[in-house]
Amino acid sequence: MSILLETILKAVMFVVLALAGFAYTTWIERRLISRMQSRIGPNRVGPQGLLQPVAEGLKLIFKESITPAQADKFVYMLAPMLAVIPALALFAVIPISNHSFFNLAGGVDTAVLYVLAILGTAVYGIALAGWSSNNKYATLGGLRAAAQVISYELAMSLALVAVVLMAGSASMNVIIEKQLPGNILGWFIFRQPIAAALFAITALAELARSPFDLVEAEQELTAGYMTEYGGMKFALFFMSEYVKMIALSGLFTVFFLGGWSGPFVGDSWPLGLVYFSIKVLLCLMVMVWVRATLPRFRYDKLMAFGWKRLLPIALANVVITAALIAFGVPGYK
Amino acid sequence: MDSSTTPPIGAITTENAQLDVTLEQLKKLVSPRAFTGETMLLNMGPQHPSTHGVLRLLLELDGETVISCVPDIGFLHTGIEKTHEGKTYLKGVPLTDRTDYLAPMINNLAYCGAIEKLMGIEVPLRAQYIRVILAELTRMNSHLVWLGTHALDIGAMSMFLYCMREREDLLDVFELVSGARMMSSYFRPGGLWRDVPPAFFDLVKKVLDVFPARIIEYERLLKENPLWKERTIGVGVISKADALAFGMSGPSLRGSGVNYDVRKAFPYSSYDHFDFNVPLGSNGDVYDRYRCRLDEFPQSLRIIKQALDRLPEGPVMTDDRKIAPPPKHEIGTSMEALIHHFKLWTEGFSGPNADVYFAVESGKGEYGVYVHGDGGPKPRRLHFRAPSLCNLQALPRMAKGALIADLVGIVGSIDIVLGEVDR
User: Fold this and answer.
1) Nearest CA to B409 among B247, B235, B261?
2) Using CA atoms, how far apart are residues A200 and A280, in angstroms rounded to an integer?
3) How do the domains of chain B map onto residue ranges?
4) Distance of CA B187 to the CA centre of its chain
5) Cβ neighbours for B423, distance < 8 A, ≥ 6 positions apart
């Protein structure tokens, strides 16, 4: 009984953290991208605009909820939920500190597989939203989303195969432990740079973030799959995108940046939380930076990039990693 | 009512047909596959983020590939040409600001040039040079908005805000000389409204100082960016012959390698006094059009620098009292000046019964004004040769077989302003 209670408490804590993180990720992104674009950004609501996410949340809640007359009503309602639930579910296997209270299921042996499975289902929300809205732009957006995920999931899986090979386990706890030996060079980003780069690129594609944001490319498809959504349903899509951003930053941290590890982390667990947050924040900032810099991929080039470049590189990386481990090269043993 | 004989609602019948085309002719604009449901008809615009105003495109799509593209214009029609017929020659100036609202000074120049040609007025050299400076600043203004929105269309969003930042400096200059940031109406038939204030020179020098570094910044963001090149090279190609046949002009034509620039071919307002090059492309794709416009920035700066250095002293308005209003102090002392003032402000000056055409190189291409005078103070008919309209004609040719994402880039690359297309 106490295990059940503990699990529920942990789950609630993770969801609350994810939602608070979502609100403030939007704030960070807007402030940071404003700096990069020589603007000021939201700074009116609360000190430094810190209450801006609250204001916008309230605004969206009070919007009238409109369903297009010709839409498939049930699927139309279902789609935002299907988008947001997988995003939240990802947090289950991300250990955000070395204290066991901040680790829901990171020790599960299939944690990496769980991540890939959940990421695969996340696209249903988007594809169904595009299909059910009965809008041509939304349909095109939904189709693009489906094609994009198919092109990038394989490369991402293979990038993670290399990580699993390195750790000898698909458990998050083991993956972090294997990156611990003493110094920063133990991090997989230094021992598996290609896998790290592949994961970063495919994560951006998975998130449909710039330069892979053609699912919602407003200059081409107005707002893509969410063209017909408004109010809280629209907010849910935003939530799913930003929660996924945090989750994938967390996963990148776990897989390549040593998770919660850092100096003196063994002495006090709050330090682990701090290190983890800093690393996630850095990942988020890189995403914002990329968005401020790069133009968008074209639909067909994106597919070609996924299948013809990333996939062969990922395959070669797996083979090379396996060989290095088999021959016991120092650092890979 | 017998339902079998009633035509469906909205059908064009012989009774209500107002168009001089038949439905059959309209159907030929898209392929027959559109009527079987094999391809999708998508209505892009007039409210769409990247149609640069209110352009409507009827797209026939096979997946994401554009099979045919039918531009539908007229959503911003404001009747400017017709309105001109009720305005005296002097009062027509503010209307021209509103055609291509990103290049008001160049429009002013074309209109005033046409009136001056009609009336046979000589403009003082100082006014001509100041007109050149302001026209080149306007060209940069127009190109900045183009670069920002074009880059935004292709997904590089920061570019837009950098361009808007630089545009502020230019708008400050316009505000200083005319009092208005966009609808400047600063030029008058015969010269300028008034001489530029002394602070003008400092502001223009600031633009000259700041811009070269900014241009390098733009180049660093896009010129060699592999994603940008992938999106623009080989996209929206139009051949030399086609570009000429469609009547394209300006950077959109020069991107295809045709060396035609009104400033060089038919110099006006002393453009022949200045050294500058006309950048040319070769492939006629989106990238070459982008290069042509970007390379015009340094040339504009060159012209402005020369004009500033050699700016002569003297009046900025013709001394022909039949055209130019007399100065205030003369009205109090001279009977003749009072009469001129009264005549100019009540009925305006009358032009000859003649036709003139006067063209300038605007940011978009050859911007021409055709005036048909009837001997009175108002034009009988006035027509603008709008480069945006002519360039837009080539869009269906360029868009054929492109993807939606390319189409957005192509629309951006021909640099249309709907205020000018529809007038």
Assistant:
1) B235
2) 13
3) 23-72, 81-324+350-381
4) 17
5) B77, B78, B79, B80, B81, B99, B384, B386
CB contact under 8 A, B155 and A210: yes
Q: Which residues pair with A332 in a beta bridge?
A: none
Report yes or no: A211 at the B interface, CB cutoff 8 Å. Answer: yes
Structure tokens at B304: 């402005």
Name the CA radius of gyration of chain B, rounded.
24
CB B131 within 8 A of CB B269: yes
Rounded Cα distance, B190 and B323, in Å:
7
Nearest to B303, CA basis, from B357, B361, B235 = B361
Distance set, CA A185 to CA A195, B257, B268 (Å): 15, 55, 68
pLDDT in tens, B284-337: 889 999 999 999 999 999 999 999 999 998 888 888 888 888 888 888 888 888
DSSP symbol at B156: -
Identify whether A331 is part of a domain: no
Residue B389 has pLDDT above 70, yes or no: yes
- Measure the CA–CA gap between A325 and B238, rounded to whole angstroms: 55
Question: What ipTM was reported for this prediction?
Answer: 0.80
Q: Say how many domains are in chain A.
A: 1
Look at the alpha carbons of B353, B354, B355, B356 in this order and tell me if their dihedral is positive or negative.
negative
The alpha-carbon gap from A222 to the nearest alpha carbon of chain B, in Å, equals 6
> Does A333 map to a domain?
no
Among A322, A202, A277, A274, which residue's Cα sits nearest to residue A25? A277
Phi and psi torsions of B40, nearest 5°: -105, 135
Contact criterion met (CB < 8 Å) for A300 and B403: yes
Is A7 domain-assigned? yes
The CA radius of gyration of chain A, in Å to the nearest whole number, is 20
The superfamily (CATH) of domain B81-324+350-381 is Cytochrome-c3 Hydrogenase, chain B (1.10.645.10)
Q: Are B97 and B107 in contact (CB under 8 A)?
A: yes
Higher pLDDT, A184 or B370: B370
A186–chain B Cβ distance below 8 A for any pair: no
Query: Quick one: tokens of A140?
Result: 């095109």
Reported in sequence order, the residue ranges of chain A that DSSP labels E, i.e. its strands, are none
- Which of these, A312, A326, A145, lies nearest to A221 by C-alpha position? A145
A277 assigned to some structural domain: yes
Select from B127, B147, B178 the least CA-distant residue to B315.
Answer: B127
Q: According to the model, what pLDDT value does residue B76 have?
A: 86
Q: Which of A213, A219, A301 to mutate to test the interface with B (most CBs of B within 10 A)?
A: A219
Q: Is A301 on the interface with B (CB under 8 A)?
A: yes
Select from B208, B129, B219 the least CA-distant residue to B173.
B208
